Amino acid sequence: MSAKVIFEFRFKATSLEDGLAELATILVDTRKFNGCLGVEVVRDVNDSEHFVLVESWESTEDYKAYSTWRAGDGKTNLGSFFAGPPSITIYEVTQV
To answer: Can you list the alpha helix ranges (DSSP code H) found in the chain?
Structure first.
């Protein structure tokens, strides 16, 4: 079953531009990862440091494989630009 992942975070004001540059670099590999159907980056119109990534995956297993890779060989320093811990929610797409 396909999955949507909502990854919400806020950049520190002092590292916004560097954080955006790092995010752009990271998303190249994310979008090429097996099972990734796409990633949208959305920015809060009232808070320019607040972002949400809306990720589409072929399955929750594909996302979990990606997440495991990011925690290991694919680790980045993106978190160092965050104002606090991100929020990650995984949804399965259902047919109603």
So the answer is: 16-32, 60-71
